[in-house]
Design a protein that fits this description.
Number of helices of chain A: 7
CATH superfamily of chain A: Class I glutamine amidotransferase (GATase) domain
CATH topology of chain A: Rossmann fold
Order of helices and strands of chain B: HHEHEHHEHEEHEHHHEHEHHH
Order of helices and strands of chain A: EHEHEHHEHEEEEEEEEEEHH
Number of strands of chain B: 8
Largest sheet of chain B: 8 strands, parallel
Oligomer: heterodimer
Shape of chain A: globular
Strand content of chain B: 5-15%
Radius of gyration of chain B: 18 Å
Number of strands of chain A: 14
Strand order of the largest sheet of chain A: 2-1-3-4-14-13-12-9
């Protein structure tokens, strides 16, 4: 399985570093040919307005939509998460619609409001996940079929729907490889798409000390280190 | 080996993190909200809010200071991409003002008239990230030692001439390559010769690159200039006077964005370089007296 990382703009090198550390076959995607070669795709952090513009002028937006329509695995962080959303707020526009979420850009403020925080509640196996937020967006609405895999400040920061995953933080900018490993497992089909078949799911409590949200309860299938 | 982005103090990680987000993009100098919108629509990853572009600073002379804050605020309100602003070298109060205004990056810049002829700002003391200019490895590592989260070549701002940016990029990369060939017991004397912190010299000797992202600036006027800087190892480009001193700014801005993203593909460069109108008029370096060279500022 070959993982493509969209390499038009942003921190795509950091994603490639994580995937290489996990021993995955991975490479940059700058062209339609490279996109066609990818079995799964990572859309990195960067500036979402720039990424939209580049997808358009490099005539990659329609090929990407067609590629995504095949239901292939995709993972977006920060700007990548914005692109994958159904609805984008501030300024408002439609996203690629792979995930049934509404995402607000720069929701925490300006750069001086960027921060690092541990996830307060996570799917089992992701306890203590370090979340680095850079001018980060917020998932304001999460659709009924979207699973929340981690929360910070009572807000979902990592979600999944089918074979699509998105995070408002940057797991590529830490030493923690668990999120990328979860994506590789999702992409290779080693986890079920909905509900849970993992035996540990029924006995593993949530990492949160507060009450887990209903969607966290459905998220266990991506767990495991 | 220590990785500043992943192991550094929290503040430094968020600062370098933003620089990571800007990679592969184009940062454009703008002086009005309208220009900022043109830049954003063309795909700029960030804008540098200024009162005058470097070419005009050069022409008009006088003391160049931090921009009128109303201009910066208006530009902040007009775009959703990061907004940067310049403070004078060593002017930590201008930097504090820009931080309080909520700019996303401060450029402690040789384009403005230095406020201190010996010392730069202690950038560790700020929550806002800083970018600084450099001409060589020693200068780059002194600025990183002071807390800069991003480096850029100085080039020669406002000249429309790429030669100085090329010289600085080549100097920087060849000095870094040389460090990787040295024995451990040669690094202290090398640090002394470079005038750079020993710990950072060791870091570069191991990794062969700066601990922070390395961008290019100073004299970029065409899509091919931008692609040249990327080919020489820059991770993003700043375009100052080049865009809004050209005949068709919106078109040139979009062309440079595309050229920077696909810098390795000459076919794309052919497509974007066609029919751009007149580029800004440039200045030949020998026509600039040493006192007019902005790159000499900084210590």
């Amino acid at each position: 399985m070959h993982i493509g990382v969209l390499a038009l703009q942003g921190d795509f090198h950091a994603h490639l570093t994580q995937l290489q550390r996990l021993g995955a076959s991975c490479g940059e995607v700058r062209s339609r040919v490279q996109l066609a070669r990818a079995d799964a795709l990572v859309i990195p952090g960067g500036e979402s307005t720039t990424l939209w513009r580049l997808l358009e002028v490099l005539e990659l937006e329609q090929p990407l939509r067609a590629w995504l329509a095949e239901g292939k695995p995709v993972f977006g962080t920060c700007a990548g998460a914005i692109l994958l959303a159904r609805e984008i707020l501030g300024p408002d526009r439609a996203g690629l619609g792979v995930l049934d979420i509404s995402v607000r850009r720069n929701a925490y403020g300006r750069q001086i409001d960027s921060f690092l925080a541990p996830a307060e509640s996570t799917a089992p196996g992701f306890e203590g996940l370090e979340c680095l937020f850079i001018r980060a967006p917020v998932f304001e609405r999460v659709g009924p079929r979207v699973e929340v895999l981690a929360e910070v400040g009572g807000r979902p920061v990592w979600v999944r729907e089918g074979r699509a995953m998105a995070a408002t933080f940057h797991p590529e900018l830490t030493h923690d490889l668990r999120v990328h490993r979860a994506f590789l497992e999702l992409a290779s089909g080693s986890t079920s798409s909905c509900g849970s078949s993992a035996p540990s799911a029924t006995v593993t409590p949530y990492a949160s000390s507060s009450a887990p949200s209903a969607s966290l309860a459905r998220s266990v299938s991506v767990g495991g280190r | 080996m220590k990785d500043w982005l992943r192991d550094g103090p929290v503040d430094l990680r968020t600062k370098i993190g933003l620089a990571e987000m800007l990679k592969g993009g184009v940062i454009m100098d703008v002086t009005t909200a309208d220009q900022a919108k043109i830049a954003e629509d063309a795909g700029a990853v960030a804008v540098m809010a200024l009162e005058r572009v470097p070419a005009d600073i050069r022409k008009e002379g006088g003391v160049a200071r931090m921009a009128d804050l109303r201009i910066v605020r208006t530009i902040q309100e007009s775009v959703s991409i990061p907004v940067m602003a310049k403070c004078r070298i060593g002017h930590f109060v201008e930097a504090e003002v820009l931080q309080a205004l909520g700019v996303d990056f401060v450029d402690e810049s040789e384009v403005l008239t230095p406020a201190d002829d010996q010392y730069h700002v202690d950038k560790h003391a700020f929550r806002v990230p800083f970018v600084c200019g450099c001409r060589n490895l020693g200068e780059a590592l002194r600025r990183v030692g002071e807390g800069a989260a991003m480096m850029r070549t100085k080039g020669e701002a406002g000249s429309g001439n790429i030669v100085e940016a090329v010289r600085h990029l080549r100097t920087l990369t060849s000095e870094m390559r040389r460090l990787t060939t040295l024995r451990d017991d040669e690094l202290m004397t090398t640090a002394k010769d470079l005038g750079a912190p020993y710990e950072l010299v060791k870091d570069v000797a191991k990794r062969g690159k700066l601990p922070v992202p390395n961008f290019a600036a100073g004299g970029i006027a065409t899509p091919a200039d931008a692609a040249l800087c990327m080919r020489l190892g820059a991770e993003t480009v700043f375009v100052g006077s080049g865009i809004f001193k050209s005949e068709n700014p919106a078109r040139l801005a979009a062309a440079i964005v595309k050229a920077t993203a696909r810098f390795e593909d000459p076919d794309i460069l052919v497509e974007v370089s066609m029919d751009l109108g007149r580029a800004m008029a440039g200045i030949e370096m020998s026509k600039l007296a040493p006192s007019e060279r902005l790159q000499e500022r900084g210590w």
